[in-house]
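Researcher: Please generate the 3D structure of the following complex. Treat every line as part of one assembly.
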Amino acid sequence: MLSKKTKYGIKALTYLAKTNKECPVQISEIAENENISVKFLERILLELRKAGVLDSKKGKGGGYFLARQPKDILMTDIIRTLEGPIAMVPCVSLNFYKKCDDCPDETVCAVNKLMIQVRDSSLAVFRNNSLEDLIRS
Amino acid sequence: MLSKKTKYGIKALTYLAKTNKECPVQISEIAENENISVKFLERILLELRKAGVLDSKKGKGGGYFLARQPKDILMTDIIRTLEGPIAMVPCVSLNFYKKCDDCPDETVCAVNKLMIQVRDSSLAVFRNNSLEDLIRS
DNA sequence: ACAAATCCTACTCACATTGTAGGAAACAAA
DNA sequence: TTTGTTTCCTACAATGTGAGTAGGATTTGT
Ligand code: FES
Ligand code: FES
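Model: Done. Output below.
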């Protein structure tokens, strides 16, 4: 199940991409338009900024704005930042690999082989969708 | 993240498919060979039986066995039984559809459109893999 | 009758998710 | 330089979910 955090993050980013403003957009504006708790969204946008997807400006007239062009922000970036691994088991994760404690040998593990296929197919979708693709469709 | 329940379920089923015995196999035997808590596995196999994937025999000499041929047991059956929806958001689930409470209109929701693609690609993998495919690879 | 196995419900415990509180730091404008 | 506005950051609370356990009821072969 997709976490609310990731869901809210995607919605906030699409909001920023759609309302293609020059000036920074405040958290409260995004939260209001997308029905998200202000304080929760605040933390989410902070994570996205630290990941280099967003940039921000403090003080009066401040707010958030995209750090790159929408076409250069891939879903893989967003998902990995907010949701974590794309793979369903740690042993097939490209960016968050970890051995499965309960499988003696992953080269003969049926779950491993199945989940590699699932990872690849999901990854293809996320890689193939930029923020621009999302607001176009 | 794939739950332990589903992971254990798949492993138990592949064990049954591999050790292609005539007689029923006891929970304790599967649990021991696959490093699974006996009582936890007991509940899992019960769910699979209720879903029609497994069948069982009680009393002495009893145990579990596949209800169908391995090639006729698809991953979609197993995942939906143990893990629940394949989709990452309820609004794109084929078998467990539910409206998203926080999205006013799913026809204009970017998350919805993205997750439909993810669902379709995952579904293709699960539909394309039977229990027989898993033990062959 | 007895032993061996599944069946079934309820319970506990640990952890993650979701959301909130409250202030510190930066910035612009008066 | 003061004031108000905004992001920044940490800690906390409430809730929900996952994982595993306990204990007995039921069925079945010998
Ligand atoms: S090795 Fe990771 S699922 Fe078996
Ligand atoms: S309608 Fe389900 S994610 Fe927006």
